[in-house]
Amino acid sequence: MRSNVNLWYILGVFFLVVAGTYTVWNVLDHGGVEWVGTVGLLFAFFMAVMVAWYLGRVDKSTGGLLPEDSLTADIDDGDPELGEFSPWSWWPLVLASSAGIFMVGLAVGQFLLPVGVAIFAIAIVGWVYEYYRGYFAR
User: Fold this and answer.
1) Residues 65 and 104 in one domain
2) Measured distance CA(11)–CA(7) in Å, rounded
3) Which of 6, 14, 47, 94 has its C-alpha lying 20 to 30 A from 74's C-alpha?
4) pLDDT by residue (tens digit) across 8-62?
5) What is the pTM of this model?
């Protein structure tokens, strides 16, 4: 895991060097700073350092040994419980369709925005309460 932390720090240093080079190049070529690219590259630097710092903290708190690295680990040690998913559920499709209708409403006509929001509300309620009604009720 320590190698992952080092790779993210190296990536952060790369973004910082590229941001400096980009800024100097624009000052020399155009006579001023091009703020969008400079700020974007600096944000990329900060995000890479943030991920590296987080992984470093996780490495320190777990002792640095992942289940994939241990020779005595079982297959189930690296397979955590991810949650409960309904493979028969149609509500995620309805939810994605509502997001699509909302986005089309942003692009084409604003009359579709309330339609997308209404379908979104119905889909969220249906997805949350699908285990409380019907065949799979608990």
Assistant:
1) no
2) 6
3) 6
4) 999 999 999 999 999 999 999 999 999 999 999 999 999 999 999 999 998 888 8
5) 0.57
Q: How confident is the model at residue 68, as a pLDDT?
A: 76
Structure token pair of residue 9: 């720090």
Which among 38, 69, 100 is the end of a domain? 69
Residue 17 to residue 46: CA distance in whole angstroms:
13
Computed over every residue of the chain, the mean pLDDT equals 90
Residue 75 lies in a domain: no
Residues in the chain: 138
Quick one: 5 exposed, middle or buried, by C-beta within 10 A (0-12, 13-18, 19+)?
buried
Residue 18 CA to residue 93 CA, distance in Å, equals 42
Q: In this structure, is residue 40 part of a structural domain?
A: yes
Query: Stretch 84-109: mean pLDDT, rounded?
Result: 90
Structural domain of 125:
91-136
